[in-house]
Amino acid sequence: MLEFIINFIISLISNLGYPIVFTLMFLDALNVPAASEITLLFSGFLVYSGRFNFQTALLIAVSANLLGGITNYFLGRLGQKLFLSKKKVERGKKFIEEHFNYAPFLGNVLPFLRSFIALPLGLVRYPLKRFVVQAVLAYFIWSFTFINIGRFLADKWETVVPYLKILDFVALAVIIGVIIYVYKYKKAHRFQLEDEPNDKKPGY
Hints:
The chain has 204 residues and is an all-alpha fold. The chain has helices spanning 2-16, 18-28, 36-49, 54-83, 86-99, 103-107, 118-123, 128-153, 164-189. Residues 191-195 have low confidence and may be disordered.
């Protein structure tokens, strides 16, 4: 399966060039894990071989990720208007700002999680400017790193692919850790998503 994905991405990029790199990186930030690591590694190889320009490939990757991330963020905001009360949003926003204020950066430097992190941040109306600044930094580091790995490994860039599973395990560990932390926090502080009951007695 992995070999099929690699060959498919290689074929697409080889035939369509920068536009497919943009498309895959856009989708990767829009709830569609699109193997951005492979896309960037092969792009790095194409930089090495002279078919791609490093700065152009990097700019396209970061721009596509940013567009996908912002789109995902506003999908979250739309979902918030449809499904969450203002009180729930304020609670979620306060919780993230107090405990996970760097979520846009950390979430976007972890595989799999980076495809979804913008959605819940939009749901709780995390400040857009703060999201963009942290996300751009994360997108840049992610793209710069993998393009350069592919660039320096040249025609041996595929040898690093099996080791990408390590990043998947790291992402899984982080997700589990966050879930446990949130659960313990809610239990200790009675942090509930439901609206608080009205304790005021009716007037006479």
